Amino acid sequence: MKGPLFYSKILLFGEYGIIKDSKGLSIPYSFYNGALKMDENPSPEALKSNANLKAFVKYLETIDAELVTFDFDTLKADVEAGMYFDSSIPQGYGVGSSGALVAAIYDKYAFDKITVLENLTREKLLKLKSIFSEMESFFHGKSSGLDPLNSYLSIPILINSKDNIEATGIPSQQSTGKGAVFLLDSGIIGETAPMVGIFMENMKQEGFRKMLKNQFIKHTDACVDDFLKGDIKSLFRNTKQLSKVVLNHFKPMIPQNFHELWKKGLETNDYYLKLCGSGGGGYILGFTEDMERAQKSLSDYKLEVVYNF
Q: Of 126, 144, 167, which one is at a domain's C-terminal end?
């Protein structure tokens, strides 16, 4: 048995901001994916994943049946028979490993599910998002539901605000373009919950709240608009500002040994770095107008191009 593939995701813009109603833009990233599977001779990883699924099923039974119901008889039988989630998506890297699992379970076992093929009204998208938010909270304590939504639909999602999301198109990639969005591997596994905890603690300070509204959210919203319009000049201007704000105010979310590298990008304009997901490790997202120059500048690191301008 092998189920359909669910992709990882990249939140290009909006990390932390979307908690406080900034815009956000999330795109599927097919380089990593996962699927539900059964094997005759399961590996240690498969056994571990199966144990996690058992706990997840128990949790799913506590979700309000008004919101979503599952075919628990089949789900439990499959889990008892050794089903696991076979995934190439790295965990703790900010590319949505639990989101893909949530999407796969909903797709296979939810009753009355909303499908990709129907007309996706805003109401349906919000309903899906709230279902996924409940489901994914098992993994993170509190989830926006966006990762599974992206994984499930496999289309870019534009977040206008908490209650206003829509499927969107993004400008097609320029295969010959010099500019790029890339992932930089920090080599450290990031934990979402502690990072979100630090953010929530900071939110108690008026100065931080002001900075978030007047700088962080302002530049995030501008980046989303620029990206969707294809205004590359303005996009890089705003990304630089955003990168600066993150370095100044989100230091705990940037692994210690990347502070200098972050600064170097801002000083040389070879690249600008930003958080990918909650930070603390995992991938760091990079933007550059000249990928060759960025690669030279970051020659000690493994870079993966996600999108070409």
A: 167
Structural domain of residue 198, as residue ranges? 180-308
Q: Decide: 128 and 152 in contact? Cβ < 8 Å.
A: yes
Structure pTM?
0.90
CATH of the domain at 303: 3.30.70.890
pLDDT one-digit tens code per residue, 71-97: 999 999 999 999 999 999 998 888 888
In a domain, residue 288? The reply is yes
pLDDT in tens, 124-166: 999 999 999 999 999 877 788 899 999 999 999 999 988 899 9
Domain boundary among 111, 141, 167: 167
Residues 127 and 151 in one domain: yes
CB within 8 Å of 33: residues ≥ 6 apart: 5, 6, 7, 8, 87, 88, 89, 100
Q: How far apart are CA 170 and CA 194, in angstroms?
A: 32
Distance CA 76, CA 116 (A): 25
Give the integer Cα–Cα distance in Å for 108 and 74.
Answer: 10
Using alpha carbons, list the distances in angstroms from residue 46 to 163, 244, 289. 37, 42, 41
User: Which domain CATH number covers 130?
Assistant: 3.30.230
| Domain tally, the chain | 2
| Domain shared by 43 and 74, yes or no | yes
Q: Are residues 17 and 145 in the same domain?
A: yes
Contact 15, 219 (CB under 8 A): no
